[in-house]
Design the sequence.
């Protein structure tokens, strides 16, 4: 043979356990350690090349900054690396199933991102002359038409900037209607089910109402007896805030009776539309007797959650409330669109203004692209697939875990912690899912179920992915049942272990400050 | 449907596992009378990417793009250059397609950027702490008003005549609902200090703005002193975040709460949203603050990490006693903000502010030369108001025909206040010498 | 009518406050049972000294990471002292809820209001019923 000394063994040697590997850099392979920009950057460094100012005479008077800002700068390559490294410490829909119940983490189509960045939408100013933004106003009008048609409602307020902002919008419209009836002083009580999102009671109070909590029944729905009892003296009833499908993932079977009774009592029906994705195309909320409902474009209509916003919460309104919609709103005369921006003239009845401009245009473009892509047929299919996927997860897991309620669910499956061994709880199961490569489900919500685990797979998961997820969660549930103490330490394989939230809250550190020696040197 | 992975075979197999005949079984709780038979009437069926893109492009094509011409519109939203890398960062899947960081072990990316964002906002406003954002500047302003009422246990807020009228309106809406009295001072180009005389021992807070809606910069320190003397808080508002590179920041003027619009840093105009509300306060009032807060801590192995903290202020725990109903905020817009600010650093931020100021000074110099123009704003950063001899709306329309979008007529945001001949105009680092000359020439032609 | 307690006596409320009365002064805190249920206490807002409270008023707030509770005045009167140390050391509420973790002292106006309160044994039985 010819001698070749370049050969080497290509089978792995016996490995040292991963946990024993220490590194000098603090990185662990592709998990790179990344310090704060305040530790790596400096005030003299910058990643932009701006022309030098000419030294024009200032027109600021003496209202000038006396001290530098302490803002650290980084060059462009360092900046890119900083954020890309940080990004790799995040879980995301594009990495895997994100089963957060009531949050609707569905795929975010990239076409939507593309259209939102068209200069004709992204690079137009909210106060440029209306004649120069006719396409933008037309887009708002088109989206409004889709929302009204899908919900069967006559009007929609487009400016709310998130779901909770939409709730505020709807409840303010109710407030204004009560003012018009001369009953705002007397009608102050709003009924809210115990299972509601925290935003509901918080919103009611922000609108000047008092919250009266209604119990859930053993089927996870509104307890009708309790509801009726609350209406016995109805002279102070302003309305009800009810989520449908509710936060237990169930359709409120008595919803039409609830609507009738609340109307008979002289109140209004606010529906939290966070879960509209389960029923779009199958039933129109307008046919159920509701007066107002916000729609989370970032849930039902796929605009990205972006790590906590921006959202958008257009709010549909019934005839009883339509006149009170806030300014600004779009009106059409012949082929010309215009904005009503003041609470006078056409906007005289409006309850006021919610925010500076016309709502979340960047979310409107994405949502409309999503609607056009799906069409009436696709939206219905999306709702049905979402519900099918949730029921599939429920069916696959209910023999191991404890389903909170009997029967089929809508778009999310709810389990309680009744099946776990003493000492193992919902948190442990959630954290163990991280080690399996999944984001945990919503935990400890809704409050009406002990140790709640709320799983919403959405329609954009394949059967194969659902099977892998159910295999993983099912195995963890078995361990929880058997009292496997190792669950208490999970996650073991995430970028970080469990974090000390007690320390964070007891001694809050909410911003970077220079370390002590530096500070002394600076003084 | 390209977004739906289930095949007809999958659906059949899954229904079999569940033991249901069809998806109709899952909708059995929907009252029969209201079940929709087919699909919703009056809407088109699904379409491919190309068709949707064409539809959207046609709508976009009907709008006049700020970058395509001489553009001088400000008044709460500003045309700035955003570095290309910022948009790449916010389109990273791990940032774009993730949720509020409720599971800190797998959300350190978002959490660390929020911590850095809070630190940057605190530094630029010279305040102790900032939250992880509000929806926009106007809603932040409204939240500041009710926070001040909570802190002082008083029920009256006073708004300056220079506060952006939309901010004032948003604040009024929130206050009225809670029975908080709102005192609005009359519109004034240069009278932020009038707040001083409006403070009494019943006042929860005074809300002043610098630069104000007419562009006037004011040292609000005397207002803070007057407010504090009567046990009230001072809320300092800004709509142009870039101004803080050059003007006296709220914290140096004695502000108890600083709120503002962060759109100028990292975010496009977007026809008004989404934007990013900045909210900062003093250490003393942290627990009365609305919105999410990110804090530093350690994990089980002792490594530094970050979590959402002080959550007991928030709606998901405190429900009807929460400091605000805010839930989702402006996550991705905060990322754009913090990434752009990281590229700038103090050096770039200061330079950017200087360039804006110089552009506005050059614009003022040029417009002052035009016969009949009177600059009204005595001290300004990058925008100012001026009076024209004639109706501002008509003049702006004529300027538009000459290819110049000359600003906002004051009567659009302050109708019926005798401001029909006032234009509020703005220049930024995007404004060129040519743009300024074109504006002056056009105005000469029109007047 | 002020009733003076010549000997120190501790009472308990159904809202899990303890109140130790001596003379016309009452020291108030939350019970060990309540502190355990709440988890790690991270923040306590004690009432302002000088404030007048009525029995049943929301008087203080106690927070853990995931929960917040209002603390009600067990007796009417004037708050004459508050435990400032809890601001920096809220963990005292977990560690010594019924001694160092006290919230405030009320100079009470009507000793008869102690009538409806429980003694230690009754409270113990009450908690058993809650579980």
Sequence:
């Amino acid at each position: 043979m010819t001698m070749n000394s370049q050969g080497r063994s290509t089978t792995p040697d016996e490995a040292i356990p991963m946990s024993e590997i220490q590194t000098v850099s603090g990185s662990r392979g592709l998990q790179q350690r990344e310090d704060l920009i305040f530790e790596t950057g400096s005030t003299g460094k910058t990643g932009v090349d701006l022309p030098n100012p000419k030294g024009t005479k200032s027109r600021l008077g003496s209202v000038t900054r006396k001290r530098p800002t302490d803002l650290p700068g980084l060059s462009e390559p360092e900046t890119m690396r900083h954020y890309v490294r940080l990004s790799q410490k995040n879980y995301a829909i594009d990495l895997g199933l994100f089963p957060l119940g009531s949050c609707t983490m569905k795929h975010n189509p990239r076409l939507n991102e593309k259209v939102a960045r068209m200069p004709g939408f992204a690079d137009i100013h909210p106060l440029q002359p209306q004649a120069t933004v006719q396409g933008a106003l037309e887009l708002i009008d088109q989206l409004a038409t889709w929302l009204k048609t899908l919900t069967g409602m006559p009007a929609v307020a487009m400016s709310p900037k998130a779901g909770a902002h939409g709730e505020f919008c709807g409840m303010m419209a109710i407030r204004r209607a009560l003012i018009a009836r001369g009953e705002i002083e007397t009608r102050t009580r709003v009924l809210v089910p115990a299972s509601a999102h925290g935003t509901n009671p918080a919103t009611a109070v922000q609108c000047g109402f008092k919250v009266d909590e209604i119990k859930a029944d053993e089927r996870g729905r509104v307890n009708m007896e309790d509801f009726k009892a609350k209406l016995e003296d109805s002279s102070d009833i302003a309305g009800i805030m009810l989520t449908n499908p509710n936060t237990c993932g169930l359709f409120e079977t008595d919803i039409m009776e609830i609507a009738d009774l609340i109307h008979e009592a002289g109140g209004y029906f606010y529906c939290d539309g966070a879960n509209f994705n389960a029923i779009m195309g199958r039933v129109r909320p307008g046919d159920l007797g509701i007066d107002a409902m916000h729609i989370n474009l970032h849930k039902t209509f796929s605009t990205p959650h972006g790590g906590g916003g921006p959202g958008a919460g257009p709010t549909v309104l019934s005839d009883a409330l339509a006149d009170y919609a806030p300014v600004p709103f779009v009106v059409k005369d012949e082929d010309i669109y215009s904005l009503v921006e003041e609470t006078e003239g056409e906007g005289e009845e409006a309850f006021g203004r919610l925010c500076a401009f016309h709502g979340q245009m960047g979310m409107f473009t994405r949502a409309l692209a999503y609607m056009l892509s799906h069409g009436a047929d696709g939206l219905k299919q999306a709702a049905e697939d979402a519900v099918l996927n949730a029921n599939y997860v429920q069916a696959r897991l209910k023999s191991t875990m404890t389903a909170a309620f009997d029967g089929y669910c809508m778009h999310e499956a709810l389990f309680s912690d009744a099946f776990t061994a003493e000492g193992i709880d919902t948190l442990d199961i959630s954290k163990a899912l991280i080690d399996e490569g999944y984001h945990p489900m919503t935990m400890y919500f809704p409050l009406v179920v002990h140790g709640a685990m709320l799983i919403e797979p959405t329609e954009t998961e394949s059967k194969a992915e659902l099977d892998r997820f159910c295999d993983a969660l099912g195995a963890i549930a078995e361990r929880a049942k058997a009292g496997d103490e190792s669950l208490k330490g999970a996650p073991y394989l995430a970028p970080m272990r469990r974090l000390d939230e007690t320390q964070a809250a007891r001694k809050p550190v909410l911003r970077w400050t220079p370390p002590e020696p530096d500070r002394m040197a600076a003084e | 449907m390209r977004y739906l992975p289930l095949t007809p075979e999958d659906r059949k197999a899954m229904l079999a596992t569940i033991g249901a005949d069809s998806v109709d079984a899952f909708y059995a709780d929907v009252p029969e009378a209201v079940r929709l038979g087919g699909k919703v009437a009056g809407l088109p069926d699904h379409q491919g990417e190309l068709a949707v893109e064409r539809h959207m492009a046609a709508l976009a094509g009907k709008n006049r793009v700020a970058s395509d011409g001489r553009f001088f519109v400000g008044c709460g939203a500003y045309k700035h250059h955003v570095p290309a890398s910022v948009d790449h960062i916010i389109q990273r899947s791990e940032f774009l397609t993730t949720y509020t960081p409720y599971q800190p072990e797998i959300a350190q990316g978002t959490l660390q950027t929020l911590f850095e964002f809070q630190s940057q906002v605190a530094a630029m406003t010279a305040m102790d702490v900032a939250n992880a954002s509000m929806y926009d500047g106007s809603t932040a302003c409204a939240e500041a008003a009710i926070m001040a009422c909570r802190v002082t246990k008083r029920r009256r807020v006073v708004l300056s005549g220079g506060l952006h009228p939309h901010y004032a309106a948003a604040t009024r809406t929130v206050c009225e609902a809670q029975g908080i009295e709102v005192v609005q001072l009359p519109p004034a180009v240069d009278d932020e200090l009038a707040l001083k005389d409006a403070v009494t021992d019943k006042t929860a807070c005074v809300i002043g703005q610098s630069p104000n809606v007419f562009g006037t910069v004011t040292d609000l320190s005397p207002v803070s002193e007057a407010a504090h003397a009567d046990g009230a808080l001072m809320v300092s508002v800004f709509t142009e975040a870039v101004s803080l590179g050059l003007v006296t920041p709220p914290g140096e003027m004695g502000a108890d709460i600083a709120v503002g619009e962060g759109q100028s840093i990292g975010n496009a105009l977007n026809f008004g949203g989404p934007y990013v509300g900045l909210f900062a306060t003093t250490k003393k009032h942290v627990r009365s603050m609305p919105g999410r807060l990110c804090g530093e801590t350690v994990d089980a192995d002792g490594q530094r990490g970050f979590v959402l903290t002080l959550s007991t202020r928030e709606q998901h725990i405190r429900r009807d006693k929460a400091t605000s109903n805010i839930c989702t905020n402006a996550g991705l817009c905060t990322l754009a903000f913090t990434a752009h600010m990281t590229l700038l650093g103090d050096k770039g931020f200061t330079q950017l502010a200087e360039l804006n100021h110089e552009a506005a000074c050059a614009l003022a110099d040029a417009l002052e030369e035009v016969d009949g123009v009177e600059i009204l704003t005595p001290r300004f950063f990058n925008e100012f108001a001026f009076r024209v001899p004639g109706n501002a709306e008509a003049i702006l329309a004529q300027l538009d025909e000459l290819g110049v979008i000359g600003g906002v007529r004051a009567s659009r945001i302050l109708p019926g206040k005798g401001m029909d001949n006032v234009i509020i105009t703005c220049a930024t680092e995007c404004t060129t010498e040519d743009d300024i000359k074109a504006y002056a020439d056009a105005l000469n032609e029109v007047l | 009518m002020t009733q003076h307690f010549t000997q120190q006596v501790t009472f308990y409320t159904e809202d899990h406050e303890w109140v130790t009365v001596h003379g016309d002064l009452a020291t108030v805190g939350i019970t060990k049972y309540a502190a355990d249920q709440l988890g790690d206490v991270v923040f306590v807002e004690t009432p302002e000294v000088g404030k007048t409270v009525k029995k049943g008023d929301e008087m203080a707030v106690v927070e853990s990471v995931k929960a917040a509770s209002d603390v009600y005045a067990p007796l009417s009167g004037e708050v004459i002292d508050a435990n400032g140390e809890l601001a920096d050391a809220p963990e005292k509420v977990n560690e010594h809820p019924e001694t160092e973790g006290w919230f405030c002292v009320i100079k009470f106006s009507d000793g008869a209001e102690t009538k409806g309160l429980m003694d230690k044994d009754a409270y113990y039985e009450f908690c058993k019923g809650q579980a």
About this structure: The two ends of chain B are 58 Å apart (CA to CA). Chain B has 14 helices and 15 strands. The interface with chain C takes residues 287, 309-312, 317-318, 321 of chain B (CB under 8 Å). The mean pLDDT of chain B is 96.
